[in-house]
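Late entry, evening session. Most of the bench is empty. Finally got around to the prediction I had been postponing all week. Sequence below, unchanged from the version circulated by S.P.
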Amino acid sequence: MLFQHVAIAGLAHIDAPRRLTSEEINARLKPTLDRLGIRIDVLGDVAGVRARRLWEGNVQASDAATLAGVKALADAGIDPDKVGLLVNTSVSRDYLEPSTASIVAGNLGLPDTCQNFDVANACLAFINGMDIAARMIERGEIEYALVVDGETANLAYEKTLERMTRADVTEEDFKNELATLTLGSGAAAMVLARAELAPGAPRYKGGVTRAATEWNKLCRGNIDGMITDTRTLLVEGIKLATKTFEVAKQKLGWVVSELDEFVIHQVSKVHTAAFTKAMGIDPKKVMTIFAEHGNIGPASVPIVLSKLREMGRLKKGSRVALLGIGSGLNCSMAEVEW
């Protein structure tokens, strides 16, 4: 769906404070690496993830999302009582029930008229949340929406490293769990508004979505770890992304050279190189954060967008492509006009 009346009134991100390097992880894994005869630095040299961020203490997904939500509302300059919808898009969650959204809504003091719920779709959920909110704004159902995401990878690291340092871990086990050690923690939030209420604000133009759900078994995660077929996931993910990109060209009128920035889901050096090559994207138009922050799941796209703004790379009139993909497989591509 394409939108005529949706603006991004506020945007914020939170970087988790603790820096965990791949060197530290490799040192802990050394007995396993030596026993299995693995001599290359897969995390640092192959994936390109030199470090990732974790939270200090017992930070829950709702805590991180709340911090980002407070910051985004302040950036938009609106009071919480104006928010008509809260969508939490985190892969991480506090409980199976209640929804993490309800906890964030309570923390923020949102009004009883504010609908709130979780949307789960792996690393694609934030863009899905933007789309849901934009549709309600476009129809005039609400004036403001808040989309939040808080990711915490602490437990996944703790449990995965425990398993990978056991004396009986096999090379297959090691390969299947390695992608978990590229994950990172962080948070992001975005206030979407009816454009008339945020004059001069960036416009959310809408986007397209395609699925290849026959590949839903390639990456399966729980709160304490993740099993991933990284090679097949990359191959099939690029196929789906290429298909979605062609649709975006048609529906959104994209000409690759005319787009100013490409905000892609942050996975690894290998993924980014394959993605930009397949789409014909100039790597200089792709800001990457995975080297220092890892894969922050659905928060990665809004975090990069927020960092681009912070760096001054987004100018009035800049056309920004948001390119998201999530295990399942699902892919969405959307445009923001700054």
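Two things to note before I forget:
The radius of gyration is 19 Å.
The CA atoms of residues 90 and 149 lie 5 Å apart.
Will write this up properly tomorrow.
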